[in-house]
Amino acid sequence: MSVHFDDFNAIKLLPEDTEKHTLSLQQNAEKFLLESSSFSTDVGTIVDLLDEFYVFVERARLTTIGLRNRIDNFDQHKAMQREELNRVLQQKEDELKKLEIEHQILHDTYRTQQQFESRLSNNRV
Fold it and tell me: For residues 46 and 41, what is the distance between their CA atoms, to the nearest angstrom?
């Protein structure tokens, strides 16, 4: 048996193995507290890293959305340009057909006038 003082300074008689067990328990508790503190620090570090990774991923996601929107806008703009060019091309083709018909009419008129002049000049001679 050994003599001990408790937390209230009262004298206690304890068996020897209880003292060893108490010291072992105290050491284990202190070790647990150190490991718990270390674990808490590690978890805090992991949480900080995950927060940083979240910011990185969110920034990449927003960049991707922005790029996708730019591509969609570019595709829409390209389609509108294509439609406009097709419309202008159709107008020019219609104008060409009209001018070809007009040219043919003028050419026929010119030929008719040439023939008429030729007949008139043959009649005068």
Answer: 9
